[in-house]
Amino acid sequence: MSTALTSRAYAESLDAGDPLAGFRGRFAWPDDDRLIYLDGNSLGPLPTATRDRIARVVAAEWGSALVRAWGEWIDLPHRAGDLIGAHLTGAAPGQVLVCDSTTVNLFKLASAALRARPGRGVIVTDDDNFPTDRYVLQGLAAQSGRELRVIRSDIDAGLDERALSAALGADVALVCLSHVAYRSGALADMARITDLVHAAGALVLWDLCHSAGAVPVQLDASGADLAVGCTYKYLNAGPGAPAFLYVRRDLIDALPQPIWGWFGQADQFAMGPEYDPVPGIGRFATGTPPVLGIAAVEEGVKLLAAAGISRLRDKGTALTGYLISLADEWLAPLGFELASPRAGARRGCHVSLRHPEAWRLSQALIAAGVIGDYRTPDRLRLGPAPLYTRFTDVWDAMDRLRRIAAARSYEDLPAERSRVT
Ligand SMILES: *Cc1c(COP(=O)(O)O)cnc(C)c1O
Q: Which of 42, 103, 108, 226 to mutate to test the pocket of ligand 1 (most atoms within 8 A of CB)?
């Protein structure tokens, strides 16, 4: 059995039975046969439909219709938001909007939540939450005279629900957590944690950056209050593409967002003297939407929708499970340790491996054509995104990694880290 698993023929048989195999051909890959891309959880590749759509938006809409195209563009943030809601995040129409960056949306929603809980002086997050989340919350706590209560998370196993329970109380206004941990890929139980937070009378804000498009998300069914997520990872919308935000329907008109921009105004082109937010999710818009980026979001989500989130989840779990099996066989004897949850149901779609030389290994792997990334302090992070990754890609990547590790060829590389990891 173990021989079968470690043979390339086994990976080939998994590819042959893959119902999503055809989607790989819908991306514009660089002309490089050796390239194995395991970093779609950082920047997704370019779908050909997106390349064509952007070319159309540039030439026919901007280049030809000019300002008249705004008649078409004005609804894009809502249209793309509803697509994300319907296919990826379990949200009924009218609750998701594509706008701004994840960081800015996090600020907008967290501030709104604090204003909705005026008597409560505490914000809760965990020490392994993504940096921008922690910084935005630190800033908000400082500006609003609140306490930021930071619970400890295991950087491999993820959120500790008992520590969260212990941090909750009548003084807590808001809890902000990542659904899938950016380093380990640990997946939090959204419904159970949302219930815990609600029992304390607080609001919960979920960061979906590493889960949207990779694992099924059920915002409405979980009773979640607020969520944000980015579109350039599993949604493949390109570098700096705008993010999305979700506000549960019954909270939309009760949460005052802090940036009073004209795109959130009720009768925008009346150019009236006072801010009067439009009813509905549109009030969370700020200024002019980035049209090219939102067009790319729409194409990216359509592609994921065609694959179907449950098939994506099944394949993602199989790919990461297979990667872990090969790591057990080949890499554990070479000093690697699994730094992600072993149970498929507890993991998103990337796997981290711990090794003291993770940085140089990540650089040697890139030189060998395998693109993953390094995360502090000593993690090699590999994301086999299910839409386009083959089981043979995982086999080849792990095979190259074990050769590099066995030959210690990474020792020739500089130990200093580059500016971007
Ligand atoms: C990628 C990521 C972000 C990025 O935020 P930006 O505003 O797009 O830079 C935020 N949170 C998490 C959990 C992420 O993984």
A: 103
130 lines ligand 1 (CB under 6 A): yes
Segment 277-289, tens digit of pLDDT: 999 999 999 999 9
Q: What is the CA radius of gyration of the chain?
A: 22
Task: Report whether residue 126 contacts ligand 1, using a CB cutoff of 6 Å.
Answer: no
Round to whole Å and give the CA distance between 338 and 156: 8
User: 63 Cβ partners below 8 Å, 6+ apart?
Assistant: none
Question: DSSP for 102-135?
Answer: HHHHHHHHHHHHHHHSTT--EEEEETTS-HHHHH
* 60 CA → ligand 1 middle, Å: 32
Q: What are 7-43's pLDDT values in tens digits?
A: 999 999 999 999 999 999 999 999 999 999 999 999 9
pLDDT digits (tens, 9 = 90+) for 297-319: 999 999 999 999 999 999 999 99
Q: Which domains does the chain have, with CATH numbers?
A: 8-47+308-412 (3.90.1150.10), 51-306 (3.40.640.10)
pLDDT of res. 4: 85
Q: Which of 182, 230, 233, 381 to mutate to test the pocket of ligand 1 (most atoms within 8 A of CB)?
A: 230
Q: What is the pLDDT of residues 144-190, one digit of tens each?
A: 999 999 999 999 999 999 999 999 999 999 999 999 999 999 999 99
Find out whether the beta carbon of 183 lies less than 6 Å from any atom of ligand 1.
no
Q: Which of 18, 126, 133, 207 is catalytic?
A: 207
Distance 182 CA to ligand 1 centre (A): 9
The DSSP secondary-structure symbol of 417 reads: P
Atom index in ligand 1 nearest the CA of residue 129 equals: 13
Distance CA 38, CA 415 (A): 22
Instruction: List Cβ neighbours of 400 (8 Å cut-off, separation of 6 or more).
Output: 36, 365, 368, 369, 370
